[in-house]
Amino acid sequence: MAIIYPHSHISEGDGARTHSARTQTCARTSEWQELLTQPDIGKCVALSRVRCIFTLVSLALLLTDIPRTGLGVRSLQEFYPLELMPSTAVRFGPFDYPIIHVWRLNSATSAPSSSESAEFAGLKGTQVVSGARVWPYQYDTLSVGFRGAINLLNVTELPGYLLYQPREGEPKKDAESLIDLTTTFTMLDAFMTAARRKLRPLGNESAVLRYATKHNWVDRIHHYVVRFASTNPAWRLHSLHIPHITSSTQSLAICSNAVATKRPPPLRPRFCNHPGIWKVDHSLNASLPAVRLWDHIDVRFQALRQLYPDLVLDVVLLSSQRLSATTGVLQSTYYNYEALEVVVLTRGRRCVDTDTATNSSSEQPTASTCTTFFIDDYRYESDRVQTNLVDWYATIALLRGGVQAYVWVRLLLLVHGAYVVAVAGKRTSESLLTTTMLILVKIPFEVVVYSSLLPVTGYVIALLLDSSFMDIFLDSFWAAVGGSINIGLVSFLRSTAVQMRNVWLLSLLVSLAVFGVRRSRDYWGDGIPAVRGLAICFTSTLTVFGPYKKTTWRDTNITDLFEIADEGQVMDIIRSNPVGHYNISNYFFDDSAVMLMFCINAVVWLAVAFNIVRYLASQTSRLDSDSKGLILSSTPVMPCGAHRLWVTSVLTIQFYGCRSDRNRVPRGHRLAPRNLRIWLKNSQILPKVPKVPSWRSTSRRHLLGEEDYSSTEFRSILQLMNIAMFTDPWNFLWLRVLGIPLYLYRIRAITLDTNATSSRRPQFYTVILPYDADEMEEYAGLGAEDFELLDSASSRDVPLSVLFQSG
Questions:
Q1: What is the mean pLDDT of the segment spanning 405-411?
Q2: What pTM does this model have?
Q3: Where exactly are the transmembrane stretches of this chain (predicted)?
């Protein structure tokens, strides 16, 4: 006969309680251990090797989150070596590189000749080439302005495939294909001729054509996969310049102040708005100091003039600009970045018969009397980012640092809880350290990581503040001149580690979704809805491949094009997009969020396909078609009173245990697979007629009245769940510092009438619940005749080893 303690309500919190009284209470409640069914996690819960692996990986990632990814952006120079100002840095480049230099081999001929019958030679820098790559004329972003001008000037010499409109009979080309030198020479020469025909300078004036383009932007893996639904459009502004050149011209004076005073600023190329910022290495002598972009253009122009002293040089300069703006959550952080691209085409011509308006040698000869002997294509590109994220470093660092400290305390408390249970539990020949570690690895670690809402919320707030910057950084990190990139495994994992941060956003979304589903009704027959932790881990892992790119995926086809009048920079931006937005986005529509949504959909469709295959297989075989889904599942068993015991942890992740094969069912009964899963059941389940005694079978609506509730296996699972949930720091504070009243009850069990068992369990057992006697019928579903109150105490005074057996 168990000892019956007098009712004591010391848990109701009396500030005058002395230390000796608390000591006496602790000593008294430690004797509750003798009345409770003793759990044995080591014997009753099997060790899953897969779970062990995921636990160790999750533990390593969680402990090293801040060392791997950092607290935040303290300085732009940490990510971009070339910092222009405290809030501005160069995110890509600056780069300058040759595309092609092609010339006629019969350049000594004085008469014009057909380009179709001529022979050409080509160089790319110092390398002899047999053709130009398709990439810079069809797929590269610098080709957008070129193709837009081709359409505006009605140039027909360009191959159709470069305009994404292949003509009949044209060979199929990809980004790595080559355009033969004859075609390259012909189309560039025709383009420059058409540009001069439309914008031929009159007198000492230079001419400008300004226009805007809207084009597809398919570059990364998620762009490519969802291109059938969205082509991720982008706007660009362009200006086509034809400088006025005479035989004595030594400088194109593209951005000189003297020229700027003679004409309105809008007529200057857009890169002139950044004086002294865009510098490149000297083209003739790398040992000389870097020069400004427009000076570099002049140096190359002079070098070509010296190389071809008997030819008349023409220059067509194409300047492109992409302005983009991204804001963080609540527009607290902003990210303005500007892509600047410059294409400089230079050609040399020999004229046999001039036809000018005057006899002045300063006039340009007409195209009809000249033959082109060389064309040079040289390009420049650079991106800049401006952000106030550095100003938010203290806030973001405080969020991430505080959350990381919370997680470390969480893990320490978890280890402490497992150690307490290992000391108080049934001892084996294994050491305490081994027993403690075995308890830890039997806990579904995804429950520990994702079920604590406080750190998850903190991580998400920090993520919403700076995730846009990381998208911008990763976008430029893998960008390369010519489209080809060489990805190393180590550098890839390091750079994309921050991409895994979206697991916290996914976790919060799952918690909100599960919470909404649970609120739809009060009673769940198969347990409370939950999501598999593996599904969250797998979905988040897929997002690390978001920055991956291939040249064959690129699509920059122009979908809209129109000319812009010279009305100023602000009017350009407004007129470039009539609907009112010009490359403006916020975090929820940035690359990381798009990739996350794509991965979620991919995992969902994978699960649907798997379920369909499993269902079809079950029709022709003995495969169990009633097994749980890959994503959505349930946690059928919950400790009675969990809503009071677990105040900060929401069990949105499926919690299950594998029953050890040492606990076997009698020989005559049908067995599940070798490691029989024991699904943890809700305290409220539908009545059903059981075939054999199991934790799924009930003879009444509430589990408390079932004899299996007091079984060693069942109590072992509940103890494992309590270790995982009670050691949340905020939950630990709730139980051990603030305290809640706990009550020790003797429960009358209902013995199942079945031939499956030859022995009977006791008809009474004891449990610890957070309900007083008046609440037992409402929350536990037991009448006054089904229970007896033995004792009560505050959770602050109950030994931790006893507290873990609550519920």
A1: 89
A2: 0.75
A3: 407-425, 445-465, 472-493, 499-517, 593-613
